[in-house]
Amino acid sequence: MEETTPPNLGVPSLAGTVNAARSFGLTELEVWQAVDESLGRAADDDSLDDSIDDLAAALARRILARARAGVADRRRLAADGL
Fold this sequence. Notes:
The chain has 3 helices and no strands. It has helices at 14-23, 28-41, 48-79. It is mainly α. The longest helix has 32 residues, at 48-79. The radius of gyration is 18 Å and the shape is elongated.
């Protein structure tokens, strides 16, 4: 009987990650700043998975910060009656 293994889903491409982050409202500059941030934290012994996790975390922080700023702006406008 042949053993089956799950397909190798691979690592998302950098372009795919950038496009996904931009679809959440980040600018290209913000995305590349997150890339720089995550690479700046990388250690010599980090695996590819660690690097991808660091990039995802850096992008998530920026996406959440942008969303929070938008909520704060809408609340301020609502309070001002606009």
